[in-house]
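PT: before anyone asks, these are the final sequences, not the draft ones from last week. 745 residues across everything. Please model them as a single complex and drop the result in this thread when it's through.
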Amino acid sequence: MNFQERLATICARMQDEKLALLVGVHDGAHFIEKPNPVMVLAGFKAIGAAAAVLHRDGTCDLIVTPTWDVERAAELCPHARVVGADDLLESLLALIGKVSAQGTNNDIGIAGLPFLPSGLARPLGAGLPGARAADRIVFEAARIKTAQEIEFAREAARIAELGYKLLLQIAQPGLSEDALALALKSYMKAAGAEDNFLLLCAGPHNRAVQPSTGRKLAQGDIILAEITPSYRGQLTQICRTVVVGDPSEELSRKYALVVQAMNQGIAAARPGVAMAEVCRAINVVLEQQGYGEYCHPPHIRRRGHGLGFASVRPGDVSLDNPTVLEPDMLFMIHPNQYLPETGYLLCGEPVVITEGGAQVLTREQSALGIAGRTQE
Amino acid sequence: MLTQHPTLLIGPSDWEPARMPREEFGRRIDALWERDPEASRAIVFGSSRHHAELAYFSNLIPKLEPAVALLSRTGAHRLFVGGGVNMIGAARPLTWIDEVLPMKDLADALAAGRAARSLLVGADSMTVGFRRTVTEAIGASDAATDATAHVWSQMRRKSRYELDAIDAAVKATGATRKAMREALISAAGVTQAVLAGERAADMAGAQDVRTLFSLDGGRTLRPFFASFKQAVDPLLAYLAVRRFNYWAECFPLFTIRPEPSRLHEKAWDALEAAASAIKPGVATQEIVQLIAAAIAPCQAHPVTARAFAQRMGLGLDEPPYTDVGATFEAGEVYSLRIGIADEPRGSLICSRMFIVAADGIVAFDEEEP
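LR: through. Structure below.
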């Protein structure tokens, strides 16, 4: 699928739903869990708040803030009519007033409203009182990644692995989590990552992976790293665990168990299988080893997730996700398990679903990493 | 100024009591109560994008999920952080508030104090769903007063601790600018130069660095989106560096031309004229006219067209954003920017950060003493 084919799918849905316009709005605050309808409809990652207005005939208007970003938007979105604005709401309502035949707005669909700050969402809702929620139309269509998004995801995976290699080289006692995270971020940016959801923390017994703090690494620490570079707006993630110094036998054994669980999940992920089944395949391995109670909240909420920024479909690898997998779906499989003996362990790979099953995007899969060994 | 918002804030953000003592936060909270003697608590919201008010009272800048400070006139202050109970450990080092709780406990905490009159700060940055939860927990709609504008007003005048933090941020922009210049002298391309600057900022202790750069001689600015290996001359950049929660910014122009261009001289002359005219009580409109006359017949650069000055502090796009207000007041910190767009001759922006003092302005110095 390419970008235009996805837009055609959305236009067909608009026809079915009797929508003349579909408005996607985003406030420019990019977040891994926050889908971005402007990226789906226009392919643009905005600096400020932005709106994409898709017409049923497939043409698209893009309004970007601040005004001075208009030329970049026009360059990156040659298929759209681009307007720069300082007040998104004013420009959007003016545009809709010009092109909408009905005064009631009930032939307008709107996507992204639940994710907006209320200071923007409330006046927008009031300005388009009859508009219908259309998140499902936009994000369902984006559940399948385009060939370009998959290509970008592969490049992001390559960059993530470079970042991990650097982590193994430079992590050592005395270095702060913040300094390590900054070094990785900078290195991956030089490799082409324009953004990075890099959760990194360490401790002798972690309860979860968290954003970095000023805490300094110590011998025996277990470093948890969710390395998530974005390449041209497409996120990919790898989840890794690294021990500072020599790992205990128990840690090595438990990590191998988590990797085994992940591999069962990867083996289960294929077209026609529900996402819940992928989660179940992971859980079974851990339950068989007596960790059943740790397979549920508060220890674990999900075993993976979709990868934005545009759309986070197919959603979480969780027991309550009935989404049936299809080719070209892209998501993370990460058991990321808390075990009482070792604490939280991170282990995860990005996969794309092919006709033959899940294809892992990384070259080297998770293995317990070792860093900062004292030189003999 | 707006820059591309990162999906996760990465950088040193731990609370440093020597830099921002507990008493400083106490004074800020006392000043909030003075504004509204009837209020007994304040609900202060912040996200990774909009958090100036939350950081002002709690020191916490949410790196990941939103947070809410529940300030109490008589009881203990509490901080509620998103992301579940497992995120509390990562939030503790970032704040002076002792009681850190998961966000799921917020609604009950708000409902428990329903009889209290509440101040609401930063509510427009909450999603509709989150705001509904807060409003329902508070109870009657008239039980809360939006005090965001009051807080913005309170934030205008900087304390000596804030000025020290801003000064440290300005010094870090100096280190960034120097590293970029050295990289360009060594024939680095645009991306290499920008990254060299960002790394220098990191080495200088930066908590966050944002950059924009121009590939068309200063006409437009853009964020990093892909590697640009080619060299560009002149290279106009925008640098924003944060230290100890406070931002500084500048618009360095790099060129191998030995002499400054006429446009360059014109912009700096306008900046000097504006800087020498700014004093407490001076109407901002007066400065707008002065700048327009000084750069005529050129137009203002699109980036600075809406605002010749930007308040600087805890937010890079600090409220009230592009509206600098009617007059300058003592104790405020601004970035003064003069942008010129002159199609045949090029475009550029020059800037200077300063504090409004009793008898004029005092510029921050990028160089270490």
